[in-house]
Each structure stands twice: as structure tokens, then as C-alpha cells.
Amino acid sequence: MNVNIVCVGKIKEKYIKDGIAEYAKRLSRFCKFEIIEVSEELCSDPNGKNILSTKNAEGERILSKLKGYSIALDLKGQSLSSEQISKKISSLKQSGVSTVNFIIGGSFGISQAVLDKCDLSICFGAITYPHQLMRLILSEQIYRAFTIEEGSSYHK
């Protein structure tokens, strides 16, 4: 199975890069894991009308990368436990889905066009995480999902 995180922008912080690299290494036992970055759109007026056009431009870039089953990370999405995420990935694999994309938007969120294209939207709670840190959190949860399916002691 191919598992992708499709996200906006680049990570600058070494500790986040290192954490993601560790989970990518661990995930190599279970799937082909890839981070697909699209460029961030500059927003000249972050408090005004340009937010929508910024999200839409980033959304077009995201949409160009999507093939397979897509899951958006969105504050209005379903709140799933680690076990439920594991069951979802497992059922997709058993159904013959070869690619799963997890989408993390930019600092203004995900465009409606991307949300409409996604098969599922999930939420990691009502609090806001920096989108760079969310990549690390999501990488860990994807790894956790595979270890739950395997029956590993990683998930307690």
C-alpha cells in the first residue's frame, strides 16, 4: 500500500524533520510512505479577501497530486480514535485500495474543492496545531495504525 501525506509548504525545523524521518523508516515495514509537498501561496492580505484565493491556489496544487483514496485533516471532520484510523486503513487495504492520501492544508486550511474531492475528513481535536508539526503527529498516527493492525505492543 502507498500512504502519502500531501501537504503545503516545507519544514524548516530539524527536530520535526528528524521525527518524520524516524516514522518514515518505521513505516517502511508496512507500506511505501511518502511526503508530497506543494508550494505555499503567498497571501498579501492575511486578514482580508486574499485568504480564499490563497486556499484555492494551494488547493489546485494539492488536487494535482491526488490519486486513490483521500482523507482531509479538517477541523470539521470526524473525530476518530487511533483504533478507528487503523480499522479504516485496514479495510481500505482489504478492499484493494492501493493508495491513501492524507491531506494537510496550509496555514489557512484546505480549499472547498479539495474537501469535496476527499473521501473522508477527519479531525485531530478542536485545538490548532502548526501544519508543520501536524505532519509529525500524523506520521506517528499512521505508524500507530499499522502497529494496531499487526497487534504490536507499540499501542498500549
Attribute tags:
156 residues, alpha/beta, 5-stranded parallel β-sheet, 5 helices, 5 strands
Structural description of this entry:
The chain is an alpha/beta fold and 156 residues long. The protein has five helices and five strands; from the N terminus they run E-H-E-H-E-H-E-H-E-H. A five-stranded parallel β-sheet has the order 2-1-4-3-5. It starts with a strand and ends in a 6-residue tail after the last helix. 28% of the residues are buried. The model has no long low-confidence stretch (mean pLDDT 94).
What is the structure about, briefly put?
This protein is an alpha/beta fold.
Numbering strands along the chain, what is their spatial order in the largest sheet? 2-1-4-3-5
Broad structural category: alpha/beta
Assembly status: single chain
Strand content: 15-25%
> Shape, please?
globular
What's the total count of β strands? 5
Low-confidence stretches: none
Specify the helix fraction band: 40-55%
Largest sheet: 5 strands, parallel
**CA radius of gyration:** 15 Å
| N-to-C series of helices and strands | EHEHEHEHEH
Helix count from the secondary structure assignment: 5
Q: How far from one another are the termini?
A: 25 Å
The whole-number mean of residue pLDDT values reads 94
